[in-house]
Design brief:
This protein has 273 residues and is an alpha/beta fold. It has a single domain, classed as Ureohydrolase domain (Arginase, Chain A, 3-Layer(aba) Sandwich), CATH 3.40.800. Helix content is 34%, strand content 15%. The chain is built from 8 helices and 8 strands; from the N terminus they run E-H-E-H-E-H-E-H-E-H-E-H-E-H-E-H. Strands 2-1-3-8-7-4-5-6 form an 8-stranded parallel sheet, with helices on both faces. Helix 2 crosses helix 3 and helix 6 crosses helix 7. The longest helix has 19 residues. The model has no long low-confidence stretch (mean pLDDT 97).
Length: 273
Amino acid sequence: MAAQFVVVPQWQGSGSTRAMRLVDGAEAIRGDLPSASTTTVAVPLEAGEGQGTGVSRFSSIQLVRDRHAMTLSTIEGLAITIGGDCGVELAAVSHVADQGEIALIWFDAHADLNTPESSPSSCFNGMVLRTLLGDGAPGLIPARPLSPSNVILVGARELDAPEDAYVAESGITLIDAEALTAKRLVDAIKKTGASRVYIHVDFDVLDPAELEGLDNPVPFGLTTTALIESIRAVKDKYELVGAGLTEFTPTSPEQAESDLPTILRIIGALSGK
């Protein structure tokens, strides 16, 4: 069964002054996806309210989470979520975790492991992974939180101090960009004991030389080739049950057009047989 694509142009999880570029990025990718296999989740225009949760724009994030989850419930087979900010992974990861144990591979320059209490910005895209692990604002924590031992952070290289402390104490596996090999990643998944895998890709896991449309580029990231080889190695050994691509922020249609061949190569690695 061919992969299905769910486009979620959420921007409310971002704290950037250029957050609306996330909508442009999602729309640019959507334009190159097969229309018969693509569904778009409606994202409210309004920013939303925090409602005393410590999460900026909480109400809109919760609404998009619910709409996204409803859409995913209608899809059979592999669903690939196209963000939007990293907060779109809340519904996508929870959807597959509710169906059984998974290993979560988090390709991202950032760990996204803050809580509402530790976050310096109150922005949800820096909290989504910690929320999936069961530490977050009531109303966003999933019914079946993940175990830290089932999470593998790949390429994370810009962590806040509380995130560093959490990684050290929680048992999350961290693979640095320069240390990544396909074998090391496959071995890390084996240690989780899971046979089903979800792959999250924030495009900023790539080195800035690989992709221009990054709002928060961090030097010394992965090459596109290393990312694709890792994805293919995982798919050779494990069942890919879901994936998400997030944080594409082109500054112009011309920049989007320049970056799309790289993005489509990654999509092809995730969706192809």
